[in-house]
Design a protein that fits this description.
Blueprint: E1 7-9, H1 18-24, H2 36-51, E2 57-61, H3 65-76, E3 82-87, H4 90-101, E4 105-110, H5 119-128, E5 134-140, E6 142-143, E7 148-149, H6 152-161, E8 167-171, E9 190-194, E10 206-210, H7 212-220, H8 232-239, H9 250-266, H10 268-289, E11 292-293, E12 305-309, H11 316-327, E13 329-331, E14 342-346, H12 353-369, H13 378-389, H14 395-402
Parallel strand pairs: 1-13, 3-4, 3-5, 5-8, 8-9
Antiparallel strand pairs: 2-10, 6-7, 9-10, 11-12, 12-14
Helix pairs in contact: 1-9, 2-9, 5-6, 9-14, 10-12, 10-13, 11-12, 12-13
């Protein structure tokens, strides 16, 4: 019998380190026991370190990141509130759709896919809003569908320049724990994340970091939205005691504890540098293949996912299927406007240069099989050259990054 290890390089769920998997491999436990708060309370505090928060608190919901999106809106805004949003990919699109369906009035900047948050437009709109009718500004930090990262510090500068009091709401689902998120320094009021990406866990935890300003909005809301499952109030009452208002996903939270330990051991700055280095290797391969990224300019390049255009006449869905069925490599498909035009390589979470090299090896074969005229070994060779020139990390740091024990 042939034992085949699947090779997962989608932008989430990501690969789970062995230490995290083993932490979740335990019998069910009593989530009301008097010992449970000793386990949960430090997790809330350690999560705040990952978001680089100065105040506020973090909520952990048994949901995907979409649930955390919903909670952020429900608890800080009212039906009929005006918000500023931008749409430039499938996930920023879905956030706009949610806001509209929840009764918000959206001032929308509809941008070209492959670009990101339009800072100049945001600055102009905010400067003209003298009555401060805009109650919140939304920004997708990392657009997973197109491989685009936006400048959240720039959004804060636009708000400050206009002396605007609007809340700053950030989608950090595919950035937190992988890309630098300075929630306190950048004045972010709600930052949404999920367990299945930088936190290196299965899907199932919606993680929402909330500033004190946003918590105050929650208390002072007029025309407040109804909420129950995602209520801040219910969570605060029980979280303060180390418990949850409903049955928590205890095994996932045990895995989160192990993930936070790995993050602390490697160090956030080292994690950001590792992701940048791996992304640069992927980009070197794309250049060597003669292909183009969906991200229009280098300033938009994402260090967690690369969306790559295939040549005219090639269906990117066939590249993804070929990689999956022939080589056991999972890649991300093109979504919505870029369906059939791009495939995506997720390079975030628990991975190193050899793992990325394996993904590129599989991509090369799949591209060739689908009729893309590339020279075999060109992309993998370019990535290997880059990784070799920039190899400075020790074996210990690699072990920390992947959760493996050194021999």
């Amino acid at each position: 019998m042939q034992i085949v290890q699947p090779h997962l390089f989608i932008p989430g769920p990501t690969n789970i380190p062995e230490a995290v998997r083993m932490a979740m491999n335990l019998p069910m436990e009593d989530m009301r026991s008097p010992e449970f708060p000793k386990f949960t309370l430090p997790i809330f505090e350690d999560l705040k370190k990952v978001f680089k928060m100065k105040d506020g608190r973090v909520f952990i919901f048994p949901s995907s990141g979409t649930g955390a999106w919903e909670s952020a809106i429900q608890n800080t805004l009212a039906i009929g509130d005006t918000v500023l949003m931008s749409r430039f990919g499938q996930f920023s699109l879905l956030w706009v759709d949610m806001a509209e369906r929840m009764g918000l009035k959206v001032i929308l900047c509809d941008e070209e896919w492959g670009t990101g948050v339009p800072l100049e437009k945001y600055a102009d709109i905010l400067a003209k809003d003298k009555a401060h009718e805009i109650k919140a500004v939304f920004a997708t930090h990392n657009e997973t569908a197109t491989g685009v990262t936006s400048d959240i510090a720039g959004v804060r500068k636009a708000l400050d320049a206009a002396k605007h009091p609007a809340l700053l709401m950030v989608d950090g689902v595919s950035s937190v724990g992988s890309l630098d998120m300075r929630m306190g320094e950048w004045g972010v009021d709600c930052c949404v994340s999920g367990s299945q990406k930088g936190f290196m866990l299965p899907t199932g935890l919606g993680i929402l970091a909330v500033s004190q300003k946003a918590l105050d909005h929650n208390k002072n809301q007029n025309g407040r939205m109804n909420r129950c499952f995602f209520s801040f109030e219910d969570m605060i009452k029980t979280n303060d005691l180390g418990y949850f208002p409903y049955t928590p996903a205890t095994q996932l939270i045990r895995g989160l504890r192990a993930s936070l330990d790995l993050i602390a051991a490697e160090g956030l700055e080292n994690i950001f540098a590792r992701h940048h280095r791996l992304a640069m290797g992927v980009r070197a391969a794309v250049d060597a293949w003669g292909l183009k990224l969906c991200a229009k300019e280098a300033k938009w390049h994402s260090d967690t996912v690369s969306a790559i255009f295939v040549p005219e006449g090639i269906d990117s869905a066939n590249v993804v299927k070929t990689a999956y069925y022939r080589y056991n490599v999972s890649l991300g498909v093109g979504l919505n406007k870029v369906m059939g035009k791009v495939f995506r390589i997720g390079h975030l979470g628990a991975l190193d240069e050899v793992m990325v090299g394996g993904a590129l090896f599989g991509v090369e074969m799949a591209l060739k099989d689908c009729g893309v005229q590339i020279r075999m070994g060109s992309g993998t060779g370019a990535a290997a050259e880059y990784f070799s020139k920039t190899a400075t990390r020790s074996a210990t740091s690699r072990d920390e990054a992947t959760g493996r024990k050194a021999a």
